[in-house]
């Protein structure tokens, strides 16, 4: 019986050589449309799909492989006597190898083509043939990836593709069609405006295997949603070791906090340790911003990440190089600056594009079979309601906004104490708000908090935080409000001569 391979591909990479290899092994090649045109010039034993289907391609190529002479030849079970007799009676010849990759729906989508052009690039026959062949993998080899061509030819030269190999090919095939359908589903979800779909399809591709996960005994990998729009973790690595699992997580925290300052005309420097900020500062120059950021917490910054929303100059690079850092990330680097930083061979030096608004609609957490999905937290204040007898000064209001932008990105319970565009103390991740405040102040007992302001990610359940803050010289507070004991905190502020504003929005981060 003639061995037969059906080849119909959009990506023509390596297909001529592969078809030649199959032809030399005695396979008759059945092909369609443009693939046939490419193969017939260089490959022997190639026939048109029409010669098999006994029916012309119709509807501008929309119907060409949806035919029992094709799917019967793919799907019949070779060990099932009834199947064998049926195809023999109907004159259906077996198809032993199916080589298909799909219309470039993804590329069409990214190119910004019209809706009608996008719809025309939804493949119908391709996925049908892939699924047919993959379902009948015990008898048919399905090939969807040009990277598998050489492996398949080598195996066939050795004898045959065993069932285990065909099962792996089938697994890859169903993964490809699953992702393809996910892309189409999400395209339609966007155009019909279903923000919270009943069925939430997403698809990720493996980008790299990391050295390890959060700890050295855990495997770590990085997957990417290739259709995410302008993801914040796009960067160019200019120096240093391979980026790690923890690096990526911390870097994300750094860039998300930097995003809060995307519209400022000032330079902002952010220091991150274990995904929490340990120092944040604004300055008129890169050197000033980094110096203030470093001085905010010169201990915790050790082994952390520093992000700067500007071009790093020689002077700043010299100071950065004086301590151990895992990552420096910035918009650009002077030639002299990059040479200084490259002297630290393990320091990961990253360059990013200017940070803009996120185009991703959701934040997600996968929790052991459940997926938590929420809107991104893009708001800061619902209001700025002064609730005390004393109102904040203009500078205090600036600092309260600065502090709230930082508290929003700290693990709850979160407290940010700032003054003149510089963090003085940060408290994060405590199970009690007063503990977060006390920890922030007591660890930084060398700091002068007189005239500083305090931002809290959530309301005060008691007046203890306000009283403690006032006793240490803090003069203004921002909090969401909403506690049944708000009055106690307001009265404590009035007693101490402090100002307080209610923002209306809570910013828990867990």
Short summary:
37% of the residues lie in helices and 21% in strands. It has 510 residues and is α/β, with parallel strands linked by helices. The strands form five sheets. Strands 8-13-12-11-9-10 form a six-stranded mixed sheet, sandwiched between helices.
Low-pLDDT windows of residues: none
Mean pLDDT: 93
- Helix amount: 25-40%
User: How far apart lie the N and C ends?
Assistant: 64 Å
- Strand content bin: 15-25%
CATH architecture of the largest domain: 3-Layer(aba) Sandwich
Which sequence of strands runs across the widest sheet? 8-13-12-11-9-10
User: What is the total tally of β strands?
Assistant: 21
Count of helical regions: 18
In words, what does this structure look like?
This protein has 510 residues and is of the alpha/beta class. It has three domains: 3-192, Methylglyoxal synthase-like domain (Rossmann fold); 231-351, 3-Layer(aba) Sandwich (Cytidine Deaminase, domain 2); 385-502, Cytidine Deaminase, domain 2 (3-Layer(aba) Sandwich), CATH 3.40.140. The protein has 18 helices and 21 strands. A six-stranded mixed beta sheet has the order 8-13-12-11-9-10, sandwiched between helices. Helix 2 links the parallel strand 2 (27-31) and strand 3. The longest helix is centred in the middle third of the chain and has 30 residues, at 163-192. The termini are far apart. The model has no long low-confidence stretch (mean pLDDT 93).
């Amino acid at each position: 019986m003639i061995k037969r391979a059906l080849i119909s591909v959009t990506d023509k990479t390596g297909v001529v050589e592969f078809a030649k290899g199959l032809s030399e092994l005695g396979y008759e090649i059945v092909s369609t449309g443009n693939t046939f045109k490419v193969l017939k010039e260089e490959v022997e034993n190639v026939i048109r799909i029409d010669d098999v289907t006994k029916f012309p391609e119709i509807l501008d190529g929309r119907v060409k492989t949806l035919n029992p002479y094709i799917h019967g030849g793919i799907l019949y079970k070779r060990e099932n006597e009834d199947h064998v007799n049926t195809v023999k009676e109907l004159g259906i010849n077996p198809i032993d190898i199916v080589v298909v990759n799909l219309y470039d729906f993804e590329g069409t989508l990214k190119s910004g083509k019209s809706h009608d052009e996008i719809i025309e690039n939804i493949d119908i026959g391709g996925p049908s043939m892939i699924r047919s062949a993959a379902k009948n993998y015990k008898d048919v080899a399905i090939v969807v990836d040009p990277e598998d061509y050489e492996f398949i030819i080598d195996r066939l030269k050795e004898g045959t593709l065993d069932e285990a190999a065909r099962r792996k090919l089938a697994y890859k095939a169903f993964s490809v069609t699953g992702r393809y359908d996910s892309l189409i589903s999400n395209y339609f979800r966007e155009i019909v405006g279903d923000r919270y779909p009943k069925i939430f399809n997403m698809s990720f591709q493996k980008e790299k295997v990391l050295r390890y996960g959060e700890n050295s005994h855990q495997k770590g990998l990085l997957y990417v949603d290739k259709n995410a729009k302008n993801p914040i973790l796009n960067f160019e690595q200019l120096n240093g070791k391979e980026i790690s699992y923890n690096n990526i997580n911390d870097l994300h925290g750094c860039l998300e906090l930097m995003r809060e300052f995307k519209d400022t005309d000032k330079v902002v420097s952010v220091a991150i340790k274990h995904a929490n900020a340990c120092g944040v500062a604004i300055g008129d120059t890169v050197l000033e911003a980094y110096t203030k950021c470093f001085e905010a917490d010169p201990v915790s910054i050790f082994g952390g990440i520093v992000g700067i929303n500007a071009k790093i100059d020689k002077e700043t690079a010299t100071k950065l190089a004086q301590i151990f850092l895992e990552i420096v990330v910035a918009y650009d680097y002077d030639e002299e600056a990059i040479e200084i930083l490259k002297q630290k061979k393990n320091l990961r030096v990253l360059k990013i594009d200017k940070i803009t608004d996120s185009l991703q609609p959701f934040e997600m957490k996968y929790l052991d079979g459940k997926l938590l999905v929420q809107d991104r937290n893009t708001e800061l204040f619902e209001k700025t309601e002064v609730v005390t007898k004393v109102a904040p000064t203009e500078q205090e209001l600036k600092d309260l906004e600065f502090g709230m932008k930082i508290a929003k990105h700290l693990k709850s319970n979160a407290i940010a104490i700032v003054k003149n565009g510089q963090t003085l103390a940060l408290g994060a991740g405590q199970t009690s708000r007063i503990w977060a405040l006390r920890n922030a102040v007591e660890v930084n007992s060398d700091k002068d908090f007189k005239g500083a302001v305090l931002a809290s990610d959530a309301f005060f359940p008691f007046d203890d935080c306000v009283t403690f803050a006032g006793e240490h010289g803090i003069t203004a507070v921002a909090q969401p409000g909403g506690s049944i004991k708000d009055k106690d905190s307001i009265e404590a502020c009035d007693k101490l001569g402090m100002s307080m504003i209610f923002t209306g929005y809570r910013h828990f981060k867990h």
